[in-house]
Amino acid sequence: MPYKILEKRELGKSGVLFEMVLDTPLIAQKAYAGNFILLRINETGERFPLTIADYDRDKGTITIVYQVVGKSTKLLSHQNVGDEILDVVGPLGNKIHIQKYEYPVIIIGGGVGLAPCYPQAKELKEAGNTVITIIGARNTDLLFWREKMRSVSDELIICTDDGTEGIKGVVTAPLKELIIKQKISIVIAIGPLIMMKYVALTTDGSGDLPKVKTYASLNTIMIDGTGMCGGCRFSTIDGDIYYACVDGPDVDAHMVDFDNLLTRSIRFIEQEKQSLKQYDHECKAMNKFQEEVS
Predict the structure, then answer these.
(1) Does 249 sit behind a cis peptide bond, omega within 30 degrees of 0 on the bond before it?
(2) Contacts of 26 (CB under 8 A, 6+ apart)
(3) Residues 226 and 142 placed together within one structural domain of the fold
């Protein structure tokens, strides 16, 4: 059964960030923070994962946010309200452990990883926690959902690499300050692997700062989403093997071998470039054909 696109909007001013609301009643009934879905836009499309950024059980909808980086996300950006997505599978993965913590919880979102921070902050806030959110991006044009995050946070800290909004610098700077001045129960990091690596290094207790339990979301490395393909396999610093799709996506950040994971994450980069190039070529050819026959 195809799934209809009910809403679509562009986020920020970058031209590459989009938000979609999908009509998925059964998925919405079972969705929780931390879950993800697998999409296949059409019969010739690939399966790719996106974390559930919000859900509405009454309306029967889920919200996804994506950044155009390759063929599939570019094809998705060409879909509009009323169009249908062939396959949406989910909710997959494990929901995060929601409970009332003794001390504040810090949630850190980097880039498009800000979107899945929202349901985590929302559910943790509803459980009675003090939630401090740090969001970061390269520049102000790549930031979005400020007010949504503020509505579920006791404190919202904004960082940009170039200083166009909030604090100039990376998210670990305010993280260090917060850990110094108060006790923190847990830290949750969602975003680029390199960002999550340095968040984990900041909280692992190896320096002058106390150790803080930290989770990293490894949703970006998934392919099959069911544990069968092995594409989301990651190793720990002790050499153990886990699978992000079935053991995560949120996992203990201090056990992850991020250096190995960073290497594995770019293993298909050439194929991805070729696929996008071919898709762009086909789009240009089709547009030229339509101009000639019109």
Answers:
(1) yes
(2) none
(3) yes
Cα 206 to the center of its chain, rounded Å: 27
* Residues, the chain: 294
Say if 270 falls within a structural domain: no
The structure's pTM equals 0.87
Structural domain containing residue 112: 105-265
CATH number for position 128: 3.40.50.80
Residue 104 per-residue DSSP state: -
Q: For 23-65, what is the HEC assignment?
A: ECHHHHHHCCCCCEEEEECCCCCCCEEEECCEEECCCCEEEEE
35, 68, 92 — which closes off a domain? 92
- Tell me: do 213 and 110 sit in the same domain: yes
- Tell me the three state secondary structure of residue 120: helix
- Count of domains for the chain: 2
Domain identity same for 88 and 120: no
Beta strand 155-160 pairing with 131-137? parallel
Q: CA-CA distance, 197 to 175, in Å (whole number)? A: 14
Helix (H) or strand (E) holding 226: none
pLDDT in 10s for each residue of the chain, 294 residues: 689 999 999 997 778 899 999 999 999 999 999 999 999 999 988 888 899 999 999 999 999 999 898 888 889 999 999 999 999 999 998 888 889 999 999 999 998 899 999 999 999 999 999 999 999 999 998 899 999 999 999 999 999 999 999 999 999 999 999 999 999 999 999 999 999 999 999 999 988 899 999 999 987 666 666 667 777 778 888 888 888 888 888 999 999 998 888 887 665 566 566 666 665 656 665 555 455 556
Whether residues 132 and 251 share a domain: the answer is: yes
